[in-house]
Amino acid sequence: SDVCSSDLQRSVVRMRRGTVVVEVGAPIAIEGLGLEDRRVLRDRTIAAVRTLRTRARERLREAGVDPGGID
Predict the structure, then answer these.
(1) Rg of the Cα trace of the chain?
(2) Which has more pLDDT, 43 or 4?
(3) Which of 2, 12, 44, 53 has its CA 20 to 30 A from that of 68?
């Protein structure tokens, strides 16, 4: 297998009281992709999540909320 568990990052989400923004992205196309394209799909997914996260953080700032962390 090309992708091993060390390629996948685990994260912990800690919820606390405050403003929440949820961004839902468009479906990620998989038509024409085969097993050998899984890294391409991974890269598309990571890029889509980064875009959604950036949009959500911008919306929080527009609402006067400091999202903390780093962009």
Answers:
(1) 16
(2) 43
(3) 44
CA separation for the pair 54, 50 (Å, rounded) = 6
pLDDT in tens, 38-53: 999 999 999 999 999 9
The CA angle 59-64-65, to the nearest 5 degrees, is 75
Give per-residue burial for 16-26: e unless 16+ CB within 10 Å, then b: eeeeebeeeee
Q: What is the pTM of this model?
A: 0.71
CA–CA distance, 49 with 55 (Å, rounded to integer) = 10
With a CB cutoff of 8 Å and minimum separation 6, the contacts of 48 are: 25, 26, 28
CA distance 8 to 14: 19
Task: Indicate whether 61 pLDDT > 80.
Answer: yes
